[in-house]
Amino acid sequence: MEDYQELRSNLISMLEELSGRLARITDDVKHADQPVEKDFEERATQAENDEVLDQLGNAARTEVEEIRQAIARIDKGEYGTCMMCGEPIPKERLHALPYTGMCVKCASSAGC
Questions:
Q1: What is the Cα–Cα distance from 90 to 70, expressed in whole angstroms?
Q2: What is d(CA 31, CA 49) in angstroms, rounded to the nearest whole number?
Q3: pLDDT tens readout for residues 31-66
Q4: Whole-angstrom Cα distance, residue 36 to residue 34?
Q5: Contact between residue 26 and residue 71 where contact means Cβ atoms under 8 Å apart
Q6: Is the CB of residue 103 less than 8 Å from the CB of residue 93?
Q7: For helices 40-76 and 5-29, what crossing angle results, to 10°?
Q8: Is 81 helix (H, G, I), strand (E, B) or coil?
Q9: pLDDT (tens digit, 9 = 90+) per residue, 74-103?
Q10: The pTM of the whole model exceeds 0.85
Q11: Cα within 13 Å of Cα(3), Cβ side
Q12: Domain edges within the chain
């Protein structure tokens, strides 16, 4: 079994960064620091901004989950093996996309 502790540490750092970003996005959408505008046009602009923030938040939540799954695979000794075909995932791919669970071939055929 390969030692992936450095990648695990990088994944944990990524998780912490994303969690902080997600918390800031959530605060912005809830208008924790700034009340909702009273002016109709300003509220419309805020609503548009909130939609963008929601999309960013959703993307961050997805990435957080992928990172958590990768850390779990490392802890179980399953990391570095494609979840689709069972072949080893090249180290270059793991360094470029450390939370991937698929080799390039399987990811391409799955549309990822």
A1: 15
A2: 11
A3: 656 666 567 677 777 778 888 888 999 999 999 999
A4: 7
A5: no
A6: yes
A7: 160
A8: strand
A9: 999 999 999 999 999 999 999 999 999 999
A10: no
A11: 2
A12: 1-79, 80-112
